[in-house]
Amino acid sequence: MARKRLLSKSKYLNGLQCHKYLWVKLNEPDRVPQFDASTQQRFNQGHLIGEFAKKQFPDGIDIPACKFTDNLKQTEELLKKCKPLFEAGIMVGNAFSRIDILKPVGKDEWDIIEVKSSTRIKNIHIDDVSFQRYCCEQYGLKIRNCFLMTVNNEYVRESDIDTAGLLTMTKITAGVDRATNGIRQRVDSMFTTIGSEKCPDVTIGKQCNSPYECPLKEECWSFLPENNIFDMYGSKKDAFELFEQGIYSFKDIPDDFPLSGRQEIQKGCEISGKPRIDKKSIREFLDKLKYPLYYLDFETFGGAIPLFDGVRPYQQIPFQFSLHVVDDDNATARHHSFLADGTGDPRSEFLASLKKVLGNSGSIVVYSQSFEKRVLRALAAMFPEYNDWVENLNDRVIDLLAPFRAFHYYDSRQKGSASIKKVLPVLTGTSYDHLDISDGMNASLAFLDIITNSAQAEERVKIRNDLERYCALDTEGMIWIVDKLKELTKGITV
Q: What is the pLDDT of residues 145-178, one digit of tens each?
């Protein structure tokens, strides 16, 4: 008989995604990489929202996330009080689940309320609650209804957080009913898997990325060539179709397999080993640039809990900009920057500082214009005195992403991506690898450490220096990219 181990609700969800991941998680946990910063941030947001959710049940009893056996014992005793319980631990057999909120209703029934930092209901949330209900019912509790409490992204903070306005509760009983069908068989199958001496052999597939990217993906996909079909631009449907035919490399894609224009370019670059350079189209793009050139980049942060008045959950708040100004074709770039001190709402000072260094004419060069434009319009909505100025700015914006998104320039080393993180090293040989903060997510999390006072004084100084270096490279890198495009199209007229 297979040796059984504890199956928690998180492990159950792991098993729904991939039995191999489930086996490794329980039998060879050292193979599982540590959570990245964005995943940890998602957990942190969930914890914060959970604390606000508890406030809606003032008579609730919090069961500390203490020793496993103590949690179970306290839960058993507190169930008799018929009051809302937070983090109640229910174990039946070797299946175990903690319930965010277990609420008594009527004489002998309970409601399950799961709390998520998401703004919408996802299938994985339904599966999550289905396992909780399974454990509760096997334990002997009568469950009346199941609810999901999520973040209301239309809520706008005014003074203190209004918990009732921040959170939305949705009845999901019908969905949980459907998800519970066959759950005993699935649970038994997972126990068989984790009790096996041999790791399951699972073919890579869509489960590697859904509902979340699997931590074992790098390991499981390591057999693929350096540039493979999963780097294909656009939907991965075609890539999986090719994979099922035993085709892993662009070079092996049959000539009669239908590819989009960009995918054809990718294939051509892989076969030739040379970049694709549409000099005429690139030249047409460069001719749109009007001096002085303002190379601009923002960094923002946002979370489930709005920190300032007039802010919605997850609304992006700009806290930093870098601006390189080039007055003419032969001029040396001048650099301006702003980085909030982290003591309050940075938006007003951000706008005032930006207006001071941005002239009234010339192109404003950004990378992926939708982001900067969206941030600026949100600022104008909050500070209407800047509305006309912001609209003028947005009319002057030139998106440096455009020639790369259109594959007017493409190098196979970009792996189907047009992001500046891929384009810059290919075109200029300069990357972000030497920086301690090397992407927008890490920049956002680092500043959150400052504004929430999580970082000590010495660490704050380092974080600020790292943020300045990272954001400055974004704008200086755009100058280098434009200079390289000019070099590639020298002598071309349109």
A: 999 999 999 999 999 999 999 999 999 999 999 9
CA dihedral 305, 308, 309, 310 (to 10 degrees): -80
Cα distance between residue 446 and residue 293, in whole Å: 30
Average pLDDT over residues 78-100: 95
**Of the candidates 343, 344, 338, which has an alpha carbon nearest to the alpha carbon of residue 308?**
344
pLDDT digits (tens, 9 = 90+) for 187-198: 999 999 999 999
Please, are residues 128 and 162 in contact by the beta-carbon 8 Å criterion?
no
50 touches 57 (CB < 8 A): no
Has residue 26 got a pLDDT over 50?
A: yes
Say if residues 66 and 89 touch (Cβ distance below 8 Å).
Answer: no
- What does the longest C-alpha to C-alpha distance in the chain come to? 85
Residue 297 structure tokens: 């980049």
**Residue 170 in tokens:** 């949705």
Residue 410's alpha-carbon distances to 165, 172, 399, 491, in angstroms, are 48, 47, 17, 20
Token pair recorded at residue 326: 């080039």
The answer to whether 229 and 244 have CB atoms below 8 angstroms apart is no
Cα–chain-centroid distance for residue 465?
24
Mean pLDDT of the region 10-20: 97
The alpha carbon of residue 348 and the mean position of all alpha carbons in its chain are separated, in whole angstroms, by 27
What backbone torsions phi and psi does residue 411 show, to the nearest 5 degrees? -125, 140
Residue 131 to residue 183: CA distance in whole angstroms:
8
Residue 312 CA to residue 119 CA, distance in Å, equals: 11
